[in-house]
Amino acid sequence: MLRPTTRVSHARASVTLSGHYMDQRFPHFEKRPERWVMVPTNARQRHVELNKIQPLLCSELASLSRLDLKKSQLGVVTSGIAAKYVEEAVMKLQLEPSLLRIAAYPIDAGVIAALVNNSSQILVVEELEPVIEEKVKALAGTVEVFGKFTGHVPREGELTVDVVLQSLGEVIGRFVTTDVPAELIAAEHALPSRLPVLCAGCPHRATFYALKKVFRKSAIYVGDIGCYTLGVSQGTIDTTLCMGASISMGSGFDAACGGVKNIVSVIGDSTFVHTGVPGLINAAYNGAKMTLVIMDNNTTAMTGHQPHPCTGVTATGVCNAPTPMEDLIKAIGVKGLYVVDPYNLAETEEAFIKAKNGDGVQVVIARRPCIISVKKAGALAKTKKRVTSTCQNYFASCKLCGTLFCPSISYSDTCALISEDCVGCGVCEQICEFDAIKTA
Amino acid sequence: MVREGKFDCIIVGVGGQGSIFASGVLGETALREGYAVISAETHGMAQRGGTVEVHVRIGSSYGPLIPLRSADALVGMEPAECLRFARYLSPKGTAIINTHVVPATGRDYPSVGDLVQALEATSGRVIAYDATRLALEAGHSQTLNVIMLGTLAHLLPLSTLEDVIAEYVPKKALEANLRAFKLGQKVVKA
Questions:
Q1: What DSSP string describes A170-191?
Q2: Helix boundaries (H) for A358-423
Q3: A193: left (phi over 0), alpha (psi -120 to 50) or beta
């Protein structure tokens, strides 16, 4: 079992390849229904087999774990990235504990017993939940075990060398402290925050603006996972849980409080084809009353612009006929379907009004390519409009454009300013009640 | 072959300033010159204007995260971001800080002079300058990261950084980036 942690997933390092990755494999499938068809009769037998192989797995995997026994009262059990922090921390403390690095699960009891027999105190340092610690405690007998259960290692948050130094210090009663100077801490506390925002020219911003205008603050906005989660700042994302939940939770909200509240589900094009479709079938078939907004920017923007079935490019970069999004949605049997360009606020608002007044499941596809894709394709220069603001003193109290949370609009004490990174989407021009913002 | 020189460096900035690109070029150079390299980046939706923090450890056999108060260098592409991670810089370390502000939300932006002063009081050396202005002088605001690498270069145990930059930047931006590297180097020569 692999246990990826934040730091393993976000680290890069020089690695030496063993050559195994080039092994040539020949596809082979052996027909053995008793092994691969998990009907109850077979499953019951497989459960016996599964339990039978556990000791074998343990002993086979034990060779991957590393045990360095030292003449020390203290033993440290660790695994993965935490092992590197322990190595650095014991170096700083000039400590030589026995060290057991667990490489794989299930954990072999023998290797833990070898450490237990050599130590009178054991500290367990692992990321996430105390899985190894539980196993060690069960086998430790009278040997003291410190870790997350005893509060020596923090249960939440990421481990670092400094955290491990503190944990080791608490066990051995000796600390290598790193004091951050008070003036640095003071300077740090006074810093402004820097929260991520939708890009200048992001079509989602316009969609959210229109959505809020039509469905008001009182609607329940059921969100999903993507850049559009940032719609929380515009007040148009109330929940984010897991992929596809916008639609399935949306129909749940309708069952619970439909008729009292308007339900608006918000999902991206990529997430929709990934996990949204079954939820939409369920909502449409079971007669939910809700509006689904598909924020279609023709890519998977947040994770780095991977293609998806509606883009016409396969996972390996080969061109193929795209899955037709509108045909798919119509076939599901929704009561209304509208496709709009979010840069056109009037058109977008009109579709939302129709959806709000319509029956059953209403779908609005707000379609415009991700601004990052447009820039990468070199297509921005061709269409880029220049936006200028003549916003003056008495407009300062308006700040309607501020509800867009656009990084290209800033405010001096007297007026709204358009910065050089503006891409000229023209959405602020459409909402300015004083005609103070002009595109040309 | 892995060499023995060790260098821990933190590169920070705002999403889009090229902190991750800079760390990649730095790591690649060190790798080619025979050092073990490990790095880790923290970027909450970096492309959307958030904070980006990259740890680069050259010649280290430990994990990718640099402990508090122990980095040899801190490269801050933006002053507030530089201060946000100043606690990682060693009391003997060098801070290279771009004094050009990228506006942020929430509290009022502190005075850049105060930020530089806090760094000066707590680190070995502070090299503070308007690197964004130099980048524009080089030909493009996006060369900011290469300006900063140019200034960092004199601290590094590496000699081929400029060559690797030339290889990694887009062809059409090559000239501007080479100018940027030289301008960045000149900051410490002057």
A1: HHHT-----PPPHHHHHHHHTS
A2: 371-376, 380-383
A3: beta
CATH number at residue A337: 3.40.50.970
Please indicate if any CB of chain B lies within 8 Å of the CB of A372.
yes
Q: What does the pLDDT look like over A10-60, one tens digit per residue?
A: 899 988 877 766 667 788 999 999 999 999 999 999 999 999 999 999 988
pLDDT digits (tens, 9 = 90+) for B5-35: 899 999 999 988 999 999 999 999 999 999 9
Yes or no, beta carbons of B65 and A7 under 8 Å apart = yes
Q: How many CB atoms lie within 10 A of CB A329?
A: 21
Other beta carbons less than 10 A from residue A362's beta carbon: 23
The count of structural domains within chain B is 1
Nearest CA in chain A to B82: A188
- The answer to whether residue A298 sits within a structural domain is yes
Do A395 and A339 reside in the same domain of the chain? no
Q: Are residues A316 and A348 in the same domain?
A: yes
Q: Which of A184, A190, A407 sits opposite B86 (nearest CB)?
A: A184
Per the structure, the complete domain to which residue B42 belongs is given by: 7-102+109-189
**Beta pairing partners, B125:** B94
Residue of A7, A87, A175, A184 to mutate when probing chain B, most B C-beta within 10 A:
A184
Which DSSP category does A108 fall into? P
Residue A58 belongs to what domain range? Answer: 34-63
Specify if A99 maps to a domain. yes
Residues in B touching A161 (Cβ below 8 Å): 62-63, 65, 67
Residue linked to tokens 């209403």: A362
